[in-house]
Write a structure and sequence with these properties.
homodimer; about 450 residues; alpha+beta; Uridine Diphospho-n-acetylenolpyruvylglucosamine Reductase, domain 2; Alpha-Beta Plaits; 4 domains; 7-stranded antiparallel β-sheet; 5-stranded antiparallel β-sheet; about 20% strand; oxidoreductase (chains A, B); FAD-linked_OxidoTrans_Type4 (chains A, B); flavoprotein (chains A, B)
């Protein structure tokens, strides 16, 4: 498929960026066509800007021709958020990957969007600091992508997700204007909070060109415990107890009965149980053990089947081995997986698990539930064989019922993956018409011609 | 001054609300004319809605007549944010003061905006929970007011300010539409983050009619320490050390040399020093003392003059007595006070203090600096005698120089009081034109006719 950009736009951006940074060949366009959703659509060109002024110039030029602009980090989104369905220009931040400044005294770092999450963590290590968002893709996803979808991870239960750990942004709006909001401070009552609005907007309101990130002191040590329960209700009651005492766990992960059964079938050394919690404490030599004891006390209660505590590195590794074994084990059930990161109030976790079990029985498909229990953010994995038309159809039919279940429990569609196109059409169920209209009005305020990542987040009118 | 509302609007709202809840008499209008800024302007009427539908109906009716709507909690704002300078209808939330639901298992509470901060804290106590924002006016300010100006307080250094402790909102836009954003969960990647956008918008984007607040487990015990330093630079270096270690202080308050000198003149038992820090740890029996030790270790360093530790209640009370004595002591210097809650990066606190000292000498006026050092959020108090025309003029001339100093240090105008009208004209210095334009576009998106609290936050075009 040939590029269909207006010739004057092509010429202007080729002149602005030079042949190394303005790519219109099919191969490079194809390399920027998909994300981890495995959805795919060819852009007309790929731009690799080196600074914010180039980003602003690209947006202004595209706006003049009403050509879509799709920001791209490392393409690890699972929702199609980075796929240019409407064609246009993919703006890759691969060359805006500088850590501009680490300010230990102000506990913040200033970065360009193309920095890899894992690279930032490495750079922060000598300062005894870290940036809390820890998606499982940390080694290959960018900060810009984390900002776009409000990425989380297990540590969010104590330290917050991306939105909670951003102090300021510089961004280019759909009008090609560079705006600056927030800054290297942690308290702000000065004007409208554009910073948190842009986080999670998936490149539909503005393109982030610089971020000031809130850092946390790296705890000196971690220790953990693994608790098995009779059923999901007993585990959920333990989650509530764990979250109600002052020692906030550093991680609090859940696995349902089908996840445990799967691990047992694959040879993991875990007891037969209805649910499992993995709980972690962090701290220093003085505080770690009392913290772990407080978590162990809270984990104990009705329905507890077994409790293992790991105070040092290798025992802790063994504890987490079961969690790490889960994703590979999932692939042994069936090659196809629909994985949604729904959110319910913590008190409704048992209802979610029960509802999903019923759905699994009805659809005759394995559905495995695990994830970030302390945030009520669970990953629901519908397993199927894509070469079996009936299973594929049943899996696809089960997905909307998962969303409907979550909404009926007072929850929401996504906790850390975002909406993209995958959940877009459910937005009308998650929000009422006036709220969606307010979101659309904000979209029009910052991107009046609708050129930024069109078709994402908000369903078409 | 008589009410100048259009007669059909007056009649419609009188019919909607009834005589008890639609007040047009001069006395009641005067009672809703001012806030703690001591600025004052008469509204044309005061509405006391009982539910969100009445709020929506009021806004729709006022919109039809292009009449301003000014939301009001308890009128404790210091910025004129609640003063109806353009007349119109003050919507008081005095009768929407229900605590709708406390959900300990989900660590959240659902409240109407008229609930007093202090009343909520009392209601949460039996559950072992609290809501972190702790402005000094907690006993008389409302949650709605806290939301409007993103109120903070000393605890924000560990627990965050209002914006960090809100999970969801129901609000009425300038079109009179009821929108719902967020909910009883702590992780959300579903659509645009209207929740955090509305916090701190001072009633200019929407009127909050219900809030879901994030609660924290109440720590079992507190302990503190008081550290005196040679000068502000030594204290600021200690602040950086305190914030860089994993034990986040529960409070971290600063006082400059003039505050200490003032306390000494007023008989407080404090040594002669250039700066003071009050640091608090919280935790339980096991964790409190190690935490306090970690803070004491961090407080020690070059320039430390004296360090007192208080591990129990009465000793701790004595420690904080100096802080509590400060506001009354301020009144002994001069009856007039311009108090601004500026923010600088923590690393620039010494520069702020030095700059203010120079300004104080130049203006021949006492300027006392104290406040929330861990957030870089310091209260700069310019003291003067209002009956002295020259002092008054010098105080008023010093204020813009404080703002200019703060901005030159890479800081911002307000950390917890908001903008109102008091700092509004400085917004053009704090933000560049494209960023202000983006804020104006968002204002227009949610309040297309500009009827919500007109003239606040954003300077007139």
């Amino acid at each position: 498929m040939a590029s269909t950009l207006p010739a004057p736009l092509d010429a202007a951006l080729a002149a602005l960026l030079g042949p190394d940074s303005w790519l219109t060949g099919e191969q490079m366009r194809r390399a920027h066509a998909e994300d981890d959703s495995r959805l795919s659509a060819m852009p007309d060109a790929v731009a690799l800007p080196r600074d914010r002024e180039q980003v602003a110039a690209i947006v202004r030029a595209c706006r003049a021709h009403r050509v879509p602009v799709v920001a791209r980090g490392a393409g690890t989104a699972t929702t199609g958020a980075a796929v240019p369905f409407a064609g246009g220009v993919v703006v890759s931040f691969a060359r805006m990957d500088r850590i501009v400044e680490i300010r230990p005294g102000d506990r913040c770092a200033v970065v360009e969007p193309g920095v890899l999450n894992g690279d930032l963590q490495q750079a922060l290590q000598p300062h005894g600091l870290f940036w809390p968002p820890d998606p499982s893709s940390a080694d290959r996803c960018t900060i810009g992508g984390n900002l776009a979808c409000n990425a989380g991870g297990p540590r969010a239960v104590k330290y917050g997700a991306t939105r909670d750990n951003v102090l300021g942004l510089v961004a280019v709006t759909g009008e090609g204007e560079i705006i600056r909001c927030g800054g290297p401070w942690t308290k702000d009552a000065t004007g409208y909070d554009l910073t948190h609005l842009l986080v999670g907007s998936e490149g539909t309101l503005a393109l982030v060109v610089e971020a000031t990130l809130k850092l946390a002191p790296r705890p000196k040590a971690q220790a953990g415990l693994r608790a098995f329960y009779r059923d999901a209700a007993a585990a959920a009651a333990a989650v509530a107890r764990l979250m109600a005492q002052p020692q906030v766990p550093a991680m609090l992960e859940f696995m349902d009965a089908s996840a445990i059964a799967l691990l047992r079938r694959n040879g993991s050394d875990v007891p037969d149980a209805g649910a499992m919690l993995l709980v972690e404490a962090d701290g220093d030599d003085d505080t770690l053990l009392p913290a772990l004891q407080a978590l162990a006390d809270a984990a104990e209660g009705d329905g507890l089947v077994a409790l293992d505590v790991a105070v040092d590195g290798s025992a802790r590794d063994r504890l987490w081995a079961a969690r790490r074994a889960l994703s590979p084990a999932l692939r042994t059930i069936a090659p196809g997986k629909i994985n949604e990161d729904v959110v319910v109030p913590v008190s409704r976790i048992p209802d979610l698990v029960a509802g999903v079990e019923a759905l699994s029985a009805e659809a005759s498909l394995p559905i495995v539930v695990f994830g970030h229990a302390g945030n009520g953010n669970l990953h629901v994995n519908i397993m199927y064989r894509p070469d079996d038309a009936s299973e594929t159809a049943r899996a696809q039919a089960a997905l909307p019922r998962v969303f409907a279940l979550v909404l009926s429990l007072g929850g929401t569609l996504s906790g850390e993956h975002g909406i993209g196109v995958a959940k877009r059409d459910w937005m009308e169920r998650a929000f009422d018409a006036p709220t969606l209209a307010a979101m659309r009005a904000i979209k029009a305020a910052l991107d009046p011609d609708g050129i930024l990542n069109p078709g994402k987040v908000l369903p078409p009118l």
